[in-house]
Known about the structure:
8% of the residues lie in helices and 36% in strands. It has three helices and 14 strands. The strands form four sheets. Strands 5-4-8-11-12-7-6 form a seven-stranded antiparallel sheet. Strands 3-13-14 form a three-stranded antiparallel sheet, with no helix packed on it. A two-stranded antiparallel ribbon has the order 1-2. It starts with a strand and ends in a 21-residue tail after the last strand. Flavin mononucleotide binds at residues 48, 61, 63-67, 81-83, 86-88, 112, 115-119, 163, 197.
Amino acid sequence: xxxxxxxxxxxxxxxxxxxxxxxxxxxxxxxxxxxxxxxxxxxxxxxxxxxxxxxxxxxxxxxxxxxxxxxxxxxxxxxxxxxxxxxxxxxxxxxxxxxxxxxxxxxxxxxxxxxxxxxxxxxxxxxxxxxxxxxxxxxxxxxxxxxxxxxxxxxxxxxxxxxxxxxxxxxxxxxxxxxxxxxxxxxxxxxxxxxxxxxxxxxxxxxxxxxxxxxxxxxxxxxxx
Length: 225
Ligand SMILES: Cc1cc2nc3c(=O)[nH]c(=O)nc-3n(C[C@H](O)[C@H](O)[C@H](O)COP(=O)(O)O)c2cc1C
């Protein structure tokens, strides 16, 4: 039997989606320790980034975004999803570019503030004492205090409902020199105390649990005596 679920569309009207329950191959009794809720944005933790945008003529702005991520390795691509009501939305849509600035525990206050104040009322760079620095390929500035900045050019805008997804190509990545190993030039990103967003709260990245591929890595033999 198909169940009807109300979904709110951007025009405020309600649409109904038909959801068919999955065929019952498992014993329903085995779902004993789960509660079931309506659809929701419950994938956590997420990175929380400061997106800088604008140009000298239109002015600069910063918007905090958690609906963000990588979409492709080669070419390097990413996305941000924005509500059209945001002050940043037309800046990014019309100029076709933005910069993703990764955030750290030290930047947590500014991250939250840039996510509750609008650039139509305040100058977020000035109020949060953040320094705009020039990017290489885009007119939007990068945030100097962020350890890693990704210059992005919009390739596609996909309307999804409440948010539009800006799919973008990553044109260049800029890292703060002090996070590079002076001998090898390798980036030690995890020494920056990256910030993430989980279920309405900010956390600094926690305990180290293993390296990529550790589950299949052969253990080093102890040298025989
Ligand atoms: C932690 C956090 C995450 C957010 N993520 C998003 C997001 O992914 N997309 C979005 O449109 N707004 C997001 N917001 C809300 C905007 O940052 C907020 O509305 C901001 O004031 C918009 O700024 P602007 O009007 O200057 O563009 C988020 C806010 C916070 C605090």
